[in-house]
Specification:
By secondary structure, the chain is mainly β. The chain is 7% helix and 49% strand. A hairpin with an 8-residue loop joins β9 and β10 (147-148).
Length: 311
């Protein structure tokens, strides 16, 4: 009896002293519609998580978003195909190729942990019964270590899409990032083609978050009281990262990225902006791995931070 009373008092104290979101976690998810009106950008976020635009790896690009295959939850889907003179199929192309993938990136906001539980996505193929795919996830941006989501290759529907659900038992801690990749291929050892496609639509990575975000994206409508440049997230990153900053008043703003030698790599912002909380995405797809610096200049305020690109 005494033990039950003691246990009840401990539980009550936890509810009083600790926010319930820290005990049970807060629902969190990142969704990409991947259709004509939304392309590859993040279309919805729930909870203390961020997501980056979907992207194709070397050798795979989004061609257009005008197809309307059967069973799609929306009217159009994304089409991914080999770029340039690359083709599907051929004597050596009966399995996935390392450079051909579609990638989804999510991470908890600074100060939070993301307990991921699942990926759901609609997938299909165009013009053939021979489109296949494997899916993996990793917290390693180089993908040198990865975990398979499907036990055998997916046989993708021809000219249609189907819904797939995968368990992802991963905990993404503060400062870490989750990478999910689809590796498609055209299962044809005797012929090649550049008119086959991977279809994608409505991808969602979901789970729960715990912790308190470090002010990167405030929940209220109050204006900042000081100038501030936030640490980019995720960091390290590959190939994109989000940079946030705060302006207490309308200002002339310049945000610049430098390499380790001080050379300007890219100017991200150069103009007048209103007071408030701002964020932007820096894409380093064409840059080499290494340390980079980003700097904000607003009125008489200047601040520089470093970030690491890890491919």
């Amino acid at each position: 009896m005494k033990m039950r009373v003691l246990f009840s008092m401990i539980v009550l104290a936890l509810f009083i002293l600790v926010p319930t979101s820290l005990i049970f976690g807060q629902a969190a998810s990142v969704t990409w519609k991947l259709n004509a009106t939304d392309t590859s950008a993040v279309s919805a976020r729930v909870g203390n998580v961020i997501g980056l635009p979907a992207m194709g790896g070397d050798g795979l690009v989004a061609r257009d978003y005008t197809q309307t295959p059967a069973q799609a939850p929306d009217t159009t889907v994304g089409r991914w195909w080999p770029t340039g003179t690359n083709t599907w199929g051929g004597a050596t192309d009966t399995t996935e190729m390392a450079g051909r993938y579609v990638q989804f990136v999510s991470a908890p906001k600074p100060g939070c942990t993301f307990a991921v539980d699942s990926l759901t996505i609609w997938l299909g193929g165009k013009g053939t019964n021979a489109m296949r795919a494997n899916l993996y996830y990793s917290k390693d941006g180089t993908f040198s270590t990865k975990t398979s989501l499907n036990s055998s290759p997916l046989v993708l529907l021809k000219d249609s899409v189907a819904w797939y659900g995968f368990k992802i038992p991963a905990t993404v801690n503060v400062g870490e990032t989750l990478f999910v990749r689809i590796y498609p291929w055209y299962y044809s050892p005797s012929s090649t083609s550049n008119s086959k496609y991977l279809y994608t639509q409505l991808a969602t990575i979901s789970g729960t978050t715990t912790g308190t975000p470090n002010g990167v994206e405030p929940t209220g409508n109050s204006l900042p009281t000081v100038f501030r440049l936030d640490q980019n997230y995720p960091n390290p990153f590959n190939p994109s990262t989000v940079i946030g900053y705060e302006l207490p008043k309308s200002s002339s703003v310049k945000v610049t990225v430098f390499d380790i030698l001080g050379n300007v790599v890219q100017t991200l912002v150069n103009g007048h902006q209103s007071a408030g909380h701002h964020s932007l995405t820096f894409n380093a797809l064409n840059l080499a791995s290494g340390m980079y610096f980003y700097r904000i200049q607003a009125d008489n305020f200047t601040q520089t931070r470093k970030m690491i690109l890890l491919k």
